[in-house]
Amino acid sequence: MAKLILTRHGQSLWNAENKFTGWVDVPLSEMGRAEATIASCKLKDYRVQVCFTSMLFRAIETAIIILTEVDDICGGKIPIIKHDIDDADWHGWDQYKGDPTQELPVYTVPALDERYYGELQGLNKAETVAKFGQEQVQLWRRSYDIAPPGGESLADTVKRTVPFFRDRIMKHLMTGDNVLIAAHGNSLRSIIKQLENLSEEEIVKVELGTAIPIVYEIDGEGQVTDKVILN
Questions:
Q1: What is the pTM of this model?
Q2: Which of 2, 15, 107, 205 could pair with 173 as two cysteines, CB 3.0-4.6 Å apart?
Q3: 9 catalytic, yes or no?
Q4: Residues 6 or more apart whose Cβ sits within 8 Å of residue 179
C-alpha cells in the first residue's frame, strides 16, 4: 500500500513572533530547521517517490530538509523542484523533463498554500486579541466558514486544496507511489478532512504541530487503512 506523509512546515520566524502569516513568504527559524531535521530522522525508514509543497518558502524549505538530511528517504535520488506555473515568462524551467531514474520531483503548487489571512497578516496574535476580543479572533482562526477581513475561511481553503489533492496527488497514491506533502496548518486540515471524512465541527478542532509527520496508508481504492503520528 502507498504511504501518504503529511507534515506542517517547521517553525517560521513569524511563528516565533506569534504573528499571523498567511501568504507572507517568511522563512523557517533556526528552531524550524531543526524541527525539519528531526522529522527527517523520524522518516528514515520511509521512501518517497514524489513530493508536493506550497509555493511558500517555509514549506519548500521543510520538504527539502526532510528529503536531504536522511539520504535513504529519496532512495538515492536527487530532489528536483518543479514549479507548476503556467507562465510564458517563466524562463523555460518547465521544459526540462527530468530523469525519473535519478531524480525525485518536488512540485510547488499554489493550491497547497496556507489560508490567506487578509488584513490580519503581519499582526501579532496577542495584540489582535486585545484589539478585537478573544471571541472574534477565535472565530476568524477556528471557525469553518467565517473569514478574517479580506481573507479566506477554512471552507475557502478546502475549495482549492481538495480538488488538487483528489485530481493530482491521489493518482500517485493509487498507483503505489509514496507521497510527501509539506504544507500548512489549514491546507493540511483540508486534506485531512477529506481523508478522514471529518465534519466541519470536527476539522476545526484538529491541531497540527510544526514538522510532526502524519503517515497514512492508502489502498488501491484511495481509502485510508492506517494512520500513524510520528510525535
A1: 0.95
A2: 2
A3: yes
A4: 2, 3, 4, 5, 48, 49, 50, 51, 52, 169, 172, 173
Output the DSSP codes for 152-172.
--HHHHHHHHHHHIIIIIHHH
Indicate which residue of 35, 61, 114, 152 is catalytic. 114
Q: Which domains does the chain have, with CATH numbers?
A: 2-229 (3.40.50.1240)
User: Looking at residue 98, what is its pLDDT?
Assistant: 84
**Tally of CA atoms within 13 A in the half-sphere of 72 that contains its CB:** 6
Q: Look-up: residue for cell 521543510?
A: 62
Q: β-strands 179-183, 103-108: how paired? A: unpaired
For residue 226, the number of C-alpha atoms closer than 13 Å in the C-beta half-sphere is 6
Among 9, 35, 61, 184, the one annotated catalytic? 9
C-alpha cell recorded at residue 84: 507548476
Q: What angle do CA 175, 176, 182 make, to 5 degrees?
A: 105
At 205-227, the pLDDT tens digits run 999 999 999 999 999 999 999 99
| Dihedral angle sign, alpha carbons of residues 58, 64, 68, 74 | positive
Mean pLDDT of 62-91: 86
pLDDT in tens, 97-148: 889 999 999 999 999 999 999 999 999 999 999 999 999 999 999 999 999 9
